[in-house]
C-alpha cells in the first residue's frame, strides 16, 4: 500500500491519542485518578472505554486472518471473547466492584488476608499481562511495516513509546477518554471499508465465499464449522469455549476497569453495554475473512493472513479510494494496538508499583517507573519471540487467565470456605499446567497427536484441575478460613444503599 | 389557695417496650437471623447467575454438538453461506445481549427486594 497514506494514518492516531490524553490530564490530579479514575466513570463512557481497550490486534486483524486461513471454526474466538463478558456479568461484575479493591492482588489479599496469595496473584498478573502485550507489539511491528515500510522492530518500539507517553502522563483518568475514542475509531475503521468492499463484491456477482474457486490444499471444508480445528475438532472447539468464556474475567486489564465504576449496579450496567458494543464490532471481522477467501487467498500460502484486513481495499477497490480505505484500516489497527497495550501497561504498572516499587518510590513516581519496566520487558520479549502468531499468544493468555484467576474470583466471591492454602494450590496447579502448555506451544513444532492437541488448547483440562485443587485444598484446611469472611460477603453482595457494616 | 400537685408515677417497674432489632443490625451482629438474610441474598443471586449461564451453555455450548450431529441442518445455505456462519457470526450476539439484559433486570430486582426487607426506606431511587 501507499506508504505516505499509511504513515499519515499512524501519525494522526498517535497525535490524537496523546492529545486526548493531555486534554484528559486536566481531570487527572490524584493518585486515585491514576489508578482507577477516582471511581467516577459513568456506565456509557466506561463501557465504551472497556470496548476500546478490549478490542486488540487479535480482534482487529487476527480474527479475519484466522477465518481466512482456517474457516468457520475460528468464529468461536470472537463469540467467546464476547460471551466472556456475560460470564463476567453474572458471576463477578458487581461483587468485584463492591469489594473496593484496586487490583486483583488487592482483591485476593482482602478476601483471604494472606500475603502469599497476594504475591502469587501479582506474579500472575504480570505474567498474563506480558503474554498479552507481546502479540500487541509484534502485530504493531508488522502492520507498521506494511503501512510505512518501517522495520518490524521499530514499529513495535513506536507503539511502546506512544503507550508510555500516554500512560505515564495521564494514568487511568485520561486513558478512559482515549480508549472511548479508540472504540469508535476501530468500529468506523472496520465498518466503512466493509461497506465499500461488500458493494464491490455485489458488483462482481456476489459469489458465496463458501464456493470460492480456489481451494487451498488440506483446507477443503473451509465453510464447515468443525474444520480447520486440527485432528480433534470437538475437543478443540470446547477448549476454546472454556478458555474464552472463563478467561475474560481474569485478564488484568479487564479487571482493573471494574474498579472505575461508581457502584455495583453501575458495574453491571456497564458490562451490559459492553456486551452490545462488542457484538456490534465482532460482526465485521469475519466479513473480511470471508471476502479474503475470494480476493486474497494467496496470503494464506504466504503466511501473512493477518494482513488480510489491510490488504483487501487496495485489491478490491484500488486507486486512491482503495488507498484511503486502507489507511483508515491502518489507523484502526494502530488504535487497537495502542488501546490494549495501554490497558495492559496500566494493569502491570499498577501491580509493579504497589508490590515491588511502592516502598522505595511511592505514589505516582512508582506507577510511572512500573509502566516503563512493564512495556520495556514486553518489547524485549516481542523481539525475541520471532514467529508466534498474534491470535495464538492471545489465546494462550486467555487459557492461563481461565485456569488461575477464574477459579480464584468465582470461589472467592461465592464460596465462604475458600482458604489461602486452597487458593495457592489452585493458582499453582492452574498456572503450572497452562503455563507449561504455553511454553510447549512457543517452542514445539506442529503435529497432530492427542498430546499436541491437549497442549495447544489446554483450558478444557487445566480449568477443572485448578478448580479441583482450590476446592480440595480449602476443604483440607478448614481452620485457615479467614475470620472476617462473613463481613466480607456482606460487602461483596449487599447493595450499597443498605446501611450495614461492610468491614 | 390550694396548690395543685400533679401526681405522677415514673412506672420504673413496668416492662420497657423494646424496639425490635433491625434486619441490618442482625446482619451486622452476624446473628442467626442475619445469616438467614445474607444466605438468602447470596443464594438468590447465585441461582440467577447459574440459570443464565446454563441457558448460555445450552444455547451456545450446544452449537458444536448441533454441527456434529445435524450437519444437514447447520449446513443449509442462508444468503449463500451455511447456517452455521449466520449463527456464529451474527445471531449469537443479540442472544448474548438479551441474556445479559435478563440477568441485570433480575439481579437489580433481587437487590431491591433485599433492600426493602433489610433496610426499608433506603432503596435506590
Name the structural class of chain A: mainly alpha
- Kindly give the count of domains of chain A: 1
Strand content of chain B: under 5%
**Low-confidence residue ranges of chain A:** none
Q: Round the Cα radius of gyration of chain A to an integer and report it.
A: 22 Å
Mean residue pLDDT of chain B: 85
N- and C-termini, Cα separation of chain A: 60 Å
Output the helix-strand order of chain A. Answer: HHHHHHHHHHHHHHHHHHHHHH
Keywords (chain A): Cell membrane, Ion transport, Membrane, Sodium, Symport, Transmembrane, Transmembrane helix, Transport
Family (chain A): Belongs to the sodium:solute symporter (SSF) (TC 2.A.21) family.
Subcellular location (chain A): Cell membrane
Pfam family, one (chain A): SSF
Identify the notable features of this structure and list them briefly:
A: Sodium/glucose cotransporter, 77% helix, 0% strand, globular, B: 125 residues, mainly alpha, two-stranded antiparallel sheet, 5 helices, 66% helix, 3% strand
Can you give a write-up of this model?
Chain A has 503 residues and is an all-alpha fold. Chain A has one domain: Sodium/glucose cotransporter (Up-down Bundle). Chain A has 22 helices and no strands. In chain A, helix 9 crosses helix 17 (363-384). The radius of gyration of chain A is 22 Å and the shape is globular. The model of chain A has no long low-confidence stretch (mean pLDDT 86). Chain B has 125 residues and is mostly helical. Chain B has a domain at 30-111. Chain B is built from 5 helices and 2 strands, in the order H-H-H-H-E-E-H. Chain B has helices at residues 23-29, 32-59, 63-69, 71-74, 83-118; strands spanning 77-78, 81-82. Chain B has a two-stranded antiparallel sheet with strand order 1-2. In chain B, helix 1 (23-29) crosses helix 2. The radius of gyration of chain B is 30 Å and the shape is rod-shaped. The model of chain B has no long low-confidence stretch (mean pLDDT 85). Classes of the chains: A mainly alpha (503), B mainly alpha (125).
Amino acid at each position: 500500500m501507499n506508504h505516505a497514506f499509511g504513515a499519515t494514518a499512524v501519525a494522526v492516531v498517535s497525535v490524537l491519542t496523546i492529545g486526548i490524553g493531555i486534554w484528559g490530564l486536566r481531570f487527572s490530579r490524584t493518585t486515585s485518578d491514576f489508578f482507577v479514575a477516582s471511581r467516577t466513570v459513568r456506565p456509557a463512557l466506561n463501557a465504551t472505554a472497556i470496548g476500546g481497550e478490549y478490542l486488540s490486534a487479535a480482534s482487529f486483524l487476527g480474527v479475519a486472518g484466522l477465518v481466512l486461513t482456517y474457516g468457520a471454526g475460528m468464529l468461536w474466538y470472537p463469540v467467546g471473547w464476547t460471551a466472556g463478558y456475560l460470564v463476567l456479568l453474572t458471576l463477578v461484575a458487581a461483587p468485584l466492584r463492591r469489594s473496593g479493591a484496586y487490583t486483583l492482588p488487592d482483591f485476593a489479599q482482602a478476601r483471604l488476608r494472606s500475603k502469599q496469595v497476594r504475591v502469587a496473584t501479582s506474579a500472575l498478573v504480570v505474567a498474563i499481562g506480558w503474554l498479552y502485550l507481546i502479540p500487541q507489539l509484534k502485530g504493531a511491528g508488522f502492520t507498521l511495516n506494511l503501512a510505512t515500510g518501517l522495520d518490524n522492530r521499530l514499529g513495535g518500539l513506536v507503539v511502546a513509546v506512544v503507550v508510555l507517553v500516554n500512560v505515564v502522563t495521564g494514568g487511568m483518568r485520561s486513558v478512559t477518554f482515549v480508549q472511548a475514542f479508540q472504540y469508535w475509531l476501530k468500529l468506523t475503521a472496520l465498518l466503512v471499508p466493509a461497506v465499500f468492499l461488500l458493494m464491490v463484491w455485489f458488483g462482481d456477482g456476489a459469489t458465496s465465499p463458501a464456493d470460492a474457486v480456489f481451494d487451498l490444499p488440506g483446507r477443503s471444508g473451509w465453510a464447515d464449522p468443525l474444520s480447520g480445528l486440527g485432528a480433534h475438532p470437538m475437543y478443540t472447539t470446547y477448549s476454546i469455549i472454556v478458555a474464552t468464556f472463563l478467561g475474560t474475567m481474569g485478564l488484568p486489564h479487564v479487571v482493573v476497569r471494574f474498579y472505575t465504576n461508581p457502584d455495583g449496579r453501575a458495574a453491571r450496567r456497564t458490562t451490559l453495554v459492553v456486551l452490545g458494543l462488542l457484538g456490534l464490532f465482532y460482526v465485521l471481522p469475519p466479513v473480511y475473512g470471508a471476502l479474503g477467501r475470494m480476493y486474497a487467498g494467496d496470503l494464506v500460502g504466504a503466511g501473512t493472513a493477518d494482513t488480510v484486513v489491510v490488504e483487501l481495499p487496495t485489491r478490491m477497490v484500488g486507486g486512491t479510494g482503495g488507498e484511503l480505505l486502507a489507511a483508515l484500516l491502518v489507523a484502526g489497527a494502530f488504535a487497537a494496538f495502542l488501546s490494549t497495550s495501554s490497558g495492559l501497561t496500566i494493569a502491570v504498572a499498577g501491580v509493579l508499583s504497589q508490590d515491588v516499587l511502592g516502598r522505595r518510590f511511592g505514589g505516582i513516581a512508582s506507577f510511572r517507573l512500573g509502566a516503563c519496566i512493564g512495556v520495556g520487558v514486553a518489547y524485549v520479549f516481542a523481539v525475541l519471540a520471532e514467529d508466534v502468531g498474534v491470535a495464538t499468544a492471545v489465546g494462550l493468555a486467555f487459557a492461563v487467565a481461565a485456569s488461575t484467576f477464574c477459579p480464584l474470583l468465582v470461589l472467592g466471591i461465592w464460596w465462604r470456605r475458600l482458604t489461602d492454602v486452597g487458593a495457592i494450590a489452585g493458582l499453582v496447579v492452574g498456572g503450572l499446567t497452562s503455563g507449561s502448555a504455553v511454553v510447549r506451544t512457543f517452542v514445539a513444532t506442529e503435529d497432530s497427536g492427542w498430546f499436541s492437541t491437549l497442549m495447544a488448547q489446554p483450558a478444557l483440562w487445566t480449568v477443572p484441575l485448578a478448580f479441583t485443587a482450590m476446592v480440595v485444598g480449602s476443604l483440607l484446611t478448614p481452620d485457615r478460613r479467614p475470620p472476617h469472611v462473613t463481613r466480607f460477603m456482606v460487602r461483596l453482595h449487599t447493595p450499597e444503599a443498605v446501611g450495614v457494616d461492610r468491614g | 389557695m390550694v396548690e395543685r400537685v400533679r401526681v405522677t408515677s415514673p412506672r420504673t417497674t413496668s416492662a420497657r417496650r423494646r424496639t425490635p432489632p433491625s434486619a441490618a443490625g442482625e446482619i451486622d451482629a452476624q446473628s442467626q437471623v442475619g445469616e438467614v438474610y445474607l444466605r438468602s441474598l447470596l443464594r438468590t443471586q447465585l441461582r440467577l447467575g447459574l440459570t443464565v449461564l446454563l441457558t448460555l451453555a445450552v444455547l451456545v455450548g450446544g452449537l458444536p454438538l448441533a454441527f456434529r450431529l445435524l450437519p444437514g441442518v447447520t449446513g443449509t445455505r442462508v444468503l449463500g453461506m451455511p447456517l452455521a456462519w449466520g449463527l456464529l457470526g451474527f445471531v449469537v450476539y443479540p442472544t448474548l445481549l438479551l441474556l445479559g439484559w435478563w440477568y441485570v433486570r433480575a439481579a437489580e430486582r433481587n437487590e431491591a427486594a433485599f433492600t426493602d426487607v433489610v433496610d426499608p426506606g433506603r432503596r435506590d431511587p
